[in-house]
Amino acid sequence: MTWGDVYWLMFFFWAFLLALSFLSRRMNEGLMAVGGLTGIAWGILLLKETLILATIIIFLNFYILFYALFEEGK
To answer: Residue 39: pLDDT above 80?
Structure first.
């Protein structure tokens, strides 16, 4: 298994978690938070390949994580 395979597997796992959280009857905060954490880990793995894409992914997933933890509970 190469690093490219790991990147794709993490991407599909991330997309699957976020799709499940958005497709549920009400947005599931737990799935969204786990998706955000997975996306952050995916971005950190991508740092050695491309800095700009990894930075965008990390900040997007921090936003998703904080939205799931703090905004959705209101």
So the answer is: yes
Crossing angle (nearest 10°) for helices 29-46 and 3-23: 160
Instruction: Say what the pTM is.
Output: 0.69
Q: Is the pLDDT of residue 25 over 70?
A: no
Residue that the structure tokens 């997007």 belong to: 60
Q: Which residue has the tokens 């991330």?
A: 14
| Residues 34 and 12: beta-carbon distance below 8 Å | no
Structure tokens at 46: 């991508």
What digits encode the pLDDT tens for the residues 45-57?
Answer: 888 778 888 888 8
Helix axes 29-46 and 51-66, enclosed angle (nearest 10)? 160
Q: Residue 62 carries which side chain, given as an amino acid letter?
A: F
Nearest to 3 by CA among 62, 50, 55, 46: 46
